[in-house]
Fold:
Amino acid sequence: MLRDITLGQYYQTDSVIHRLDPRVKLVATLIFIISLFLVDNFIGYAVAALFLFMVIKLSKVPFKFMVRGMKAIVFLLLIAVVFNLFFTPGEVVFSVWKIKVTKEGIYLAAFMAIRLVFLIMGSSVMTLTTTPNQLTDGLEKLLSPLKKVKVPVHEISMMMSIALRFIPILLEETDKIMKAQIARGADFESGNLIKKAKSLVPLLVPLFISAFRRANDLATAMEARCYRGGDFRTKMKPLIYQKRDRLAYLVCWGYLLLCIVIGKILF
Amino acid sequence: MGIIKTDNLVFEYIRRDEEGNVEGITRAVDEVTLDIKQGDFVAILGHNGSGKSTLAKHINAILYPTEGTVWVDGMDTSDEDKLWDIRQSAGMVFQNPDNQIIGQIVEEDVGFGPENLGVPTKEIWERMEESLKAVGMYEFRKHSPNKLSGGQKQRVSIAGVIAMHPKCIVLDEPTAMLDPNGRKEVIRAVRALNDVENITVVLITHYMEEIIYANKVFVMDGGKVAMEGTPREIFSQVEKLKSLRLDVPQVTLLAHELKKSGLPLPDGILTKEELVTALGL
Structure:
């Protein structure tokens, strides 16, 4: 049950996008997000939509997985649309009682909605096609210039990947402790918010103790296997740019250029 | 000199109160002198708190002796320059399989040790393949460790150690958290390593059935080596083992009781088959 949860939302299949270097995907996502804020007309959004659609098609991930990520932001989306729609001053299109809907309001609301939807879909494509491990690897490599200013990039990415590995283990442990405390008469369900928060103490204390114990064990095990930071290490799966990665970069930068042209120069 | 040698090894835990004053000193290991030869299968037995795990941690240079010396493959473990060489030649497998697997995929975990040693990428893959095959876990190389059974996880941990090409492996109660099937799997893998690859094995355990494959057994009690010999020599002394709060295998115990009641049986029977032959059935 808890054992089977998948982290992030990686969708296992074999596609061009899956095989891309994680660094390319991280940079491409960033470019896509920037592009969404560069364009402010429908032609620009049409180009963005076309680009996104092409990438989704190439990734072979079913469209419904993209939409799934949207559920989390439905509320935010609604607020953004409503506020923009009703509170933007300008040329009134129609009004009901005291509420006026303006032409500018409709435009702004539509742009905001498109931006948010594309933003979530764009980043979903990345998380759906990249394993958490590849992501941390990609981040480590991308941020490695920061090592020069003493940022512990390797250590941060090691911490991230260990955290990812231990999330399911700690979840299982939480479940176990919860059952053990329920068997001793603990009550996690009833009462008001404060009472509920208080009832978490007998769950959190043993969980923390066990997490620290695990951390200590793991540190010893890592040292026993000669772990001594990132300096001497070689990589089992080194990130090396292939031809397709360079091509993907080219496409991304081309797309960004197009967006700049459409957004700033043509109109 | 053997692969692992200790000379009058003493280790003391210093207990401190909240202000940091010394409350008391516990001698966990007390004047232990051992000599283990390359290719040996050594078992170290003892009940909880007998100092066997503390002794094991000295072999991997996780702990340093308070007095005396430990040599691993001719290197003194208190020599800091040799620290990483020692840890590479003496691999260590711990009790809890969940707390020693670092990778999120089996193959990545096995690659972790060689990565730390700076082995070239291509060779890491070769080592991963050969060590997973040696413990019979190759077909699981793409799996997440969270979905494996305890015995399988422990075999992955062993593979992770073999991939570093150690001369000796120290296993600190590797089967304590496993079910009987898992225990058998792990012990079978360890025996194969010893037989086929000629890797020195130091197995620390409190399960008697696991030590019958060893060619030398040390029994520890109160930090000292209380008994020393082949499994047969050790199991001949049922009364002494009982006084050290250790159980003997059921068959050995049965043979011992039969002998006490007057049946002419040899000492130190280890397996069912031996007992059957000895009884002439």
